[in-house]
Design brief:
Keywords: Membrane, Transmembrane, Transmembrane helix. With about 170 residues, the chain is mainly α. The protein has helices spanning about 30-55, 60-65, 75-100, 160-170; strands spanning about 5, 15. It has three domains: about 30-70, no CATH class; about 70-100; about 105-174, no CATH class.
Length: about 170
């Protein structure tokens, strides 16, 4: 175990033990990810340099070194194909999402199998004022009964659409 020595104000030496440093994997950061990122960065630059050399150096010079590559037509064709594929995949992604989305007048846009109903009614208009707070008010006395405490935060849930419409359009109703 490592230790650190320090001198106190009275001149005595104080030895404080240090814990051993944690491994990088224990704190959630893996050095492998950094290495993979660095290797990937260098590989991308290498591919870009080779692509540029292939595009700019004449075919005769490459053949003199014994390098036989496909036609220069591919220098233009490959980026065009990649960009076209990207646009196609983006369009396909949007089309699939539009296909999977329910119509605007469907109740599935409001309620589904994950709907959590609020267990007690929430008033659309605050009709009663908050109770007065003074030094004698105990705001923690009724913490276990969250639904009835005057300062309770209501549980998370979905408000019925009728209640929302009532609040939005100031209609009396359910």
């Amino acid at each position: 175990m490592n230790s650190s020595k320090s001198i106190n104000s009275n001149g005595s030496v104080h030895t404080a033990p240090h814990s051993t440093p944690q491994k990088a994997t224990e704190i959630g950061k893996s050095p492998d990810k950094e290495i993979y990122g660095l290797v990937g960065y260098y590989c991308i630059w290498l591919v870009l340099a080779l692509y540029t050399v292939y595009a700019l150096v004449p075919d005769g010079v490459l053949r003199n070194y014994g390098i036989v590559l496909p036609s220069k037509w591919w220098v233009v064709a490959i980026p065009v194909y990649v960009c076209s594929l990207w646009v196609f995949l983006l369009s396909l992604y949007l089309a699939v999402n539009f296909y999977c989305t329910p119509p605007i007048d469907s109740l599935d846009t409001i309620r589904d199998e994950f709907t959590v109903h609020v267990p007690f009614p929430i008033s659309p208009v605050h009709q009663k004022a908050d109770p007065p707070v003074d030094a004698t008010t105990d705001v923690t006395s009724d913490v276990k009964d969250v639904g009835t405490h005057p300062y309770a935060i209501p549980p998370v849930g979905d408000i019925p659409i009728q209640r929302v419409m009532c609040v939005l359009y100031r209609q009396s109703g359910t």
